[in-house]
Specification:
- It holds the Pfam family MFS_1.
- Keywords: Membrane, Transmembrane, Transmembrane helix, Transport.
- This is Major facilitator superfamily (MFS) profile domain-containing protein.
- The chain is mainly alpha-helical.
- It has one domain: MFS general substrate transporter like domains (Growth Hormone, Chain: A, Up-down Bundle).
- The protein is built from 20 helices and 2 strands.
- It has a two-stranded antiparallel ribbon with strand order 1-2.
- Helix 2 runs parallel beside helix 8, helix 7 packs across helix 18 and helix 16 runs antiparallel to helix 17.
- The protein starts with 18 loop residues before the first helix and ends with a helix.
């Protein structure tokens, strides 16, 4: 592969793209982007009392979600290259909306645990599925920004969930005999289900299994040509024992899995900020939920800045390192803990720097794996499943709910993983650059 063109921070397209390629990229951007937070807001908004949560049941609740995620991921290592993604991704979204909706009727801890497990099954492959689609259409110097916009949308959903929960607690609590936290599940499902149907029409699929309702044969051919120029392999081949053996004996699988495990363990407990605000014991429920949106609101900026900078001026290793250092600053303050309250507000506000790494890391993984569709699908799924599985049991040890919001083991554990992630990123950089030099 030849040397990539120098990019300025304000360049959305590659300087080498033709006008036809730019129109294609703009269309793909529109088609892809038109289209676990609710539970924390619900917990601090009355669900824990209504369903008699006690002890460590919040962290156990989060654990069953992770278990469902891992189990739900595994079939898609085979399905991604085989099933048209413009059918698969919206189907996951639709099923998620249905099981998210039925959570409003839960009357016990065990019942909502069952619903939550099903939600996690269908949510599991949505994130790697979107990144599989991104890696199927975009070049290496385009993918981080698009992944960043996707993740900014997820972060906006987190922010909106807090604002909606605050509004539901204030204005809908008791309406038709339903608590405000129950209305939250209804509202988010009413938003999600129509978008899932829109996705069946607008998702572009992948170049080898495209959505021909919205992409012409010329656009599909152009997309394939521009990717093949940059070394991407687009045709899926049947799995074989020999192919699997090559995947599991190469460096990519193991390095990417270890890298992803460190990433998945760099975040503080997702409920920590809300639990700390609630522990101040001077704010009503709507205010707790409104203040809880500070971190995801800043997170939108973190995600966009880190992902745009990865493509345009810092490079992927520099962008990941910057996000990690900002996250580490907050985790060190939370580890010390005995600091002024204002310092804790600042520390919790850095939390979303950890998730800003996500789309850079997965975008880079797509680039590393671009030479083989089956290896890309299998590795994206398994690295996510294995890394996610660590979140099924480690939080029980380091982030038990009974230690909230102090978490004396959790914050230093996350800080240690941030340091490991920085070091591992440099390992990936060295190995990747060496391989690209050989292939050039």
């Amino acid at each position: 592969m030849g040397k990539e063109s120098i990019r300025r921070w304000y360049h959305w397209y590659s300087p080498e793209d033709t006008p036809e390629e730019r129109r294609l990229v703009m269309k793909l951007d529109f088609l892809i982007y038109i289209d676990q937070t609710n539970i924390n807001n619900a917990y601090v908004s009355g669900m824990s009392e209504d369903l008699n949560f006690h002890g460590n049941q919040l962290v156990q609740f989060q654990t069953i979600f992770i278990v469902g995620n891992v189990l739900g991921l595994l079939p898609f290592a085979y399905l991604f290259p085989k099933v048209p993604m413009h059918w698969l991704v919206p189907s996951l979204d639709f099923c998620w909306g249905i099981f998210n909706l039925v959570q409003y009727r839960a009357t016990s801890y065990s019942e909502i645990m069952a619903y939550r497990f099903m939600v996690s099954i269908f949510e599991a492959s949505y994130f790697p599925g979107v990144h599989f689609v991104l890696g199927s259409w975009y070049k290496s110097d385009e993918i981080s920004r698009r992944g960043g916009i996707f993740y900014a949308g997820l972060t906006l959903g987190t922010l909106t969930a807090g604002l909606l929960q605050a509004a539901a607690s204030k204005h809908l609590d008791g309406v038709n005999g339903l608590a405000g936290w129950r209305w939250m599940f209804i509202i988010t499902s009413v938003i999600t289900l129509p978008l899932a149907f829109v996705g069946f029409v607008l998702w572009p699929g992948t170049p080898d299994k495209p959505n021909r309702l919205i992409l012409s044969e010329n656009e599909i051919a152009l997309a394939r040509a521009r990717l093949e120029r940059h070394g991407n392999k687009l045709e899926a081949l049947p799995f074989s024992w020999g192919r699997l053996r090559r995947i599991f004996t190469g460096w990519r699988f193991y390095v990417l899995v270890i890298w992803d495990i460190f990433f998945f363990n760099t975040s503080a407990n997702t409920a920590a900020f809300l639990l700390w605000i609630k522990s101040l014991d001077r704010l009503d429920t709507p205010t707790v939920n409104n203040l809880g949106t500070i971190a995801p609101a800043l997170g939108i900026f973190y995600v966009l800045f880190i992902n745009f900078s990865a493509d345009l001026f810092l490079g992927r290793p520099g962008a990941i390192t910057l996000a990690c250092l900002w996250n580490l600053t907050g985790l060190i303050i939370l580890t010390i803990w005995k600091v002024p309250e204002s310092a804790k507000w600042f520390a919790f506000s850095t939390n979303y720097a950890s998730v800003a790494v996500s789309s850079v890391l997965y975008g880079w993984a797509n680039i590393i794996l671009r030479h083989n569709v089956e290896e890309r699908a299998l590795t994206l799924i398994l690295m996510t499943a294995i890394a996610t599985s660590t979140n099924a049991w480690i939080p029980l040890l380091v982030y038990p709910t009974v230690e909230a919001p102090r978490f004396p083991k959790g914050y230093p554990y996350s800080a240690a993983n941030v340091i490991c992630l920085i070091l591992m990123t440099q390992v990936v950089r060295v190995i990747y650059n060496k391989e690209e030099y050989v292939l050039a």
